[in-house]
Model the fold of this input.
Amino acid sequence: MYRDEILDLYKNPRNSGKIEAADIEEKGDNPSCGDRLKIYADIENEKLKDLKHETDACAICTAATSILTEEAKSLTTSELEELDGDWIIEKLGIDISPMRMKCALLGLETLKKGLEKV
Done:
């Protein structure tokens, strides 16, 4: 059903945890699936210094958020603001049904919501 990499990211999420005194601490949820997450980010000189998440979510949401936290660490805030859903779908590397699209995008949308407040 899911690629082995997706299942591994679900069972062993990357960058899981909390950042104390983070510049961004933003909650996201997907009521239709029950996904809930919190994104933490430290920003220094408009670059992402650290990015972590606490995720209680389905495999797709957890995997996508793990990928986001790995891939986005070297980006500037301007580059992060430019990321779109196609970017994360491409990084997931699997077909996402319309019903699961919100699961896949929740981490990215939550991070971008947090960036608007910084």
Observations:
- The chain has a mean pLDDT of 94.
